[in-house]
Design a protein that fits this description.
- It is a single chain.
- This protein is mainly alpha-helical.
- It has a two-stranded antiparallel ribbon.
- The radius of gyration is 15 Å and the shape is elongated.
- The mean pLDDT is 80.
Length: 88
């Protein structure tokens, strides 16, 4: 597994898909944005499963216990906040 893949949420093929749905200067409706988020989140899960990418092992600062971090998910914030698309 390439370095950083365990923490990665945005794989290059996901960014390509997101950008293919976005046209500069054209806004995206909220239902379309939510549908795209669902599609990209499913794509993320398939990539991680297909490449056998597990989340990193983390240690709780308070209790000192270790375990796997939560699975990453694509959020609406990451779509919009990443500057990939704009909402109309």
């Amino acid at each position: 597994m390439p370095s950083g893949d365990a923490q990665r949420t945005w794989f290059p093929e996901m960014v390509v898909r997101l950008r293919s749905k976005w046209h500069e200067g054209v806004g995206v409706s909220m239902p379309t944005l939510i549908s795209l988020r669902d599609e990209l989140d499913g794509m993320l899960q398939r990539i991680r499963t297909g490449r056998n990418i597990q989340t990193p092992i983390i240690t709780c600062r308070r209790f000192g216990t270790t375990g796997r971090a939560a699975e990453p998910h694509v959020s609406l914030n990451s779509e919009v906040g990443g500057g990939f698309i704009e909402i109309s």
